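Hi Y.,

Following your request, here is the sequence exactly as I used it, all 96 residues.
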Amino acid sequence: MKININDFQNALNVIFERLKDDNGENFELELNEDYYNFIPTEKLYNIDGLTVEVTIGSLFEDFELLNKFKSESHYSVPTDLIKFSSLIRYIGENLV
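Below is the corresponding structure, written out as tokens. Let me know if you'd prefer a different format.
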């Protein structure tokens, strides 16, 4: 399967617009948790083995890094996406 980046961006834009429509333009979500279990990429998609090695991630750090990256000329898109995904998951899990 191939994902068209424009289609993906449009889908994310729709999700964020609906979030703002439902909760207000300046909606804020409190990060009540900081640390989470992070499964390294080489283990995340390997479903053959039953053992899972996790490391610790930080939502606070992820958010701080994303804010820092947007203002710097040197950034890492892959790292930004990984950090963004942890925050997106937290938001999704805490809106239900």
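The chain has a mean pLDDT of 87.

Thanks again,
Q.
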